[in-house]
Design a protein that fits this description.
The structure is a single chain. By secondary structure, the protein is of the alpha/beta class. It is built from eight helices and seven strands. A seven-stranded mixed β-sheet has the order 1-7-6-2-5-3-4. α5 (104-113) crosses α6 (138-145). The radius of gyration is 16 Å and the shape is globular.
Length: 205
Amino acid sequence: MRPWIQAIFFLLFLRPFFLLFIGLRMRGREHLPERDPFILIANHTSHLDAASILTLFPLARLCRIRPVAAKDYFLRNAVVAWLSRTLFNILPIARKGITKEDNPVEEMRRALDRGESLILFPEGTRGAGPEPAPFHAGVAHLLERAPGVPVVPAYLLNLGRSLPKGEFLPVPFFAEVRLGPPLHPSGSREEVLNQLQTAVMDLRS
């Protein structure tokens, strides 16, 4: 039942909202993965970010594509938890009180092992400017445990202006999702992070 509710929500509300109200455009459609699993990484400026990326995929694939989200925020009460899980199929991960059984990297690895794809914001929190903050090491740890999974870089433009941090009502503002070719980064964790951040930054222009 959940996939049907999500598909109807995207078809009747979310896609028209981003297309007609926000004016969302896409560049690099040829890099959109056709198979799961994959990891899509992007800069993070707005609560609209994950939803905008999800609208790019066919409705039938939404049940296999999971935005990684902070458990303490998106499961903070029953209503928010239901909306986050049902409409956006989030993968909730812990940011504090982490245990061996609740390890975020292992949660993400298990999702990839199940054939699910992840939308990940390696900055860890929303930024305020056009340049992403340094990426956290978690994505490099994940790639060590999931070798062979392609990483698709994305740069999100103007979504932070459509819904700035601290605001609750979006405003029309032409926004764009820019996708780059899939990567298979290698080397040390620091080298992997540098490769990923460079790939996202290169999409700004």
